[in-house]
C-alpha cells in the first residue's frame, strides 16, 4: 500500500470529502459555544470577515501545496523547501493533539445517540445529566475508544471506499436537519422565575447583531483570538490535512471552485448551528448562560429543544445525534488519514501498521482527556478566559499556539521564499480565473503573518 497514491474519483467526491473533514464538531459543537462566550454577534462578524480573507488564504495555500507536491504534509513541506521540512513534523503533531480530545467529544455524541436510539432521549434533558455523565469514570472512556475504533476502521479501509462514499450521503442530510432545527429554535419562548420573558427571536438578534457597547480592546482581542483558532479548526487548515487531501486531487480538477464550495459549506453549517443553539441558550439562560457557556453547551441545549417537542423530539433527536456522529466521524477520519498518510509516505509502513500505531497513541491520550473530568480533574485559567481541564488545555495548545505557528511559518514560506506565484500557478493550472488573486497575495505576504504573530504573542500571554 505504500506504493501508489490514492486519489479521489472526481471533483464532487473531493469537495464532499474535504467538506466532510471541515464540517464536524467544530461547526456544531465548538462554534456555538465560542460564539456564546464571546457575545454572539461580535464573534460572528469577526469570524465571517476572517473566513473570506484569512481562511480562504490558508485553504488555497494548503490545497495547492498538496496538489503540487503530490505528498502528504510530512514530506510536502520538504519538497517545497528543504529548510522548512520541520513544518511537516509540526503538521503531523497538530492532528495528533486534536484527535484524542475530538474523539472524546465524539464519544459524548455517541453516548447521546445511543440514549436517543434506545428511547432514553428524554433523560438527557434532565438537569445535571451531562455533568454526571462526563464525570463518571468508565462510560465516557468506553465511548471514546469506540469512536476511535470506528475512525481507525474507515482509515484502514482507505480513502475511496471509506471517506468518499460516507460523505456523499451524510452531508446533505445533516444540512437539512440543521436548517429544520434552527427554524424551530426561533419559536421558543420562556418566562424565567423573575418574570422575564425571552424569545428565540431575541436570541437570534444576540447571535447576529454585534453589540459594540462596553467593547474593550481586551475583549476584542480575545474574540479575534478565539475566531482565528475556530477558523483553523473548522476549515481543518493549519493541520496538514488539506495538504494531504490536496495531494489526492487530480491536476485537471478546478481547485478554485472547490475551495469556494468548501468554504461556503463550512461557514454555512457553522452559522446554522449557531442559529440552532444560541437562541435556545438565550431563551433558557439569558445573557448569564451565554457568558458561561462551555464545551457542554450543545449537550445541554439540544436535549432541551428535543424534549420540548415530545415524541417527535425523541425521533428527531435520534436522527440528529446520528448525523452529528457521522459528521464527527468524517472529520476524525480526515485527521487520522492525515497522520496515517504521513506515516506511510515517510516511513514506508503499511496502512494497517500506521493505523494501528496511531490508534494506540490516540487511545492513550484520549483516556487522559476523559480522566480529566474525574480522577485527573484540575482547574487552569487560560489567557482567553477559559478555566481549563485537559480537553480545553489540548484545545488551547493546538488552536491558539501550534496552529497559528504552523500557519505563520507556512505564510512566510509561501509569501516570501517560494513566492505566491507558485501557488497561483498551481491554482490556475488549467487557466481558471482567480478573482481573489490580489487579496491572496496581500494576505499571505503581509496581513496573515502580522495577525498570526500578534495572536501567538497574545496566546502565550505576552500581552
Ligand atoms: N474541521 C473539523 C471540525 O470542524 O469539526 C475538525 C478538524 C478536522 C480539525 C481535521 C482539524 C483537522 F485536522
Helix/strand layout:
Layout: H1 11-22, H2 25-37, H3 41-69, H4 73-80, H5 86-117, H6 129-135, H7 139-157, H8 159-185, E1 189-191, E2 197-199, H9 200-208, H10 217-235, H11 241-247, H12 255-291, H13 297-308, H14 311-347, H15 351-371, E3 380-381, E4 387-388, H16 390-417, H17 420-427, H18 437-459
Antiparallel strand pairs: 1-2, 3-4
Helix pairs in contact: 1-8, 1-12, 1-14, 2-10, 2-12, 3-9, 3-10, 3-11, 3-12, 3-17, 3-18, 4-5, 5-7, 5-14, 5-15, 5-16, 7-14, 7-15, 8-12, 8-14, 9-12, 10-16, 12-13, 13-14, 14-15, 16-18
The structure holds 4-fluoro-L-phenylalanine.
Structural description of this entry:
Helix 7 (139-157) packs antiparallel against helix 15 (351-371) and helix 16 crosses helix 18 (437-459). The chain has a single domain (11-459), classed as Hydantoin permease (Orthogonal Bundle). It has helices at residues 11-22, 25-37, 41-69, 73-80, 86-117, 129-135, 139-157, 159-185, 200-208, 217-235, 241-247, 255-291, 297-308, 311-347, 351-371, 390-417, 420-427, 437-459; strands at 189-191, 197-199, 380-381, 387-388. The strands form two sheets. A two-stranded antiparallel sheet has the order 1-2. The relative contact order is 0.20. It is 75% helix and 2% strand. The chain starts with 10 loop residues before the first helix and ends with a helix. It binds 4-fluoro-L-phenylalanine. 4-fluoro-L-phenylalanine (PFF) binds next to helix 1, helix 2, helix 5, helix 10 and helix 14. 4-fluoro-L-phenylalanine (PFF) binds at residues 21-22, 24-27, 95, 98, 233-234, 236, 239, 241, 331, 334-335.
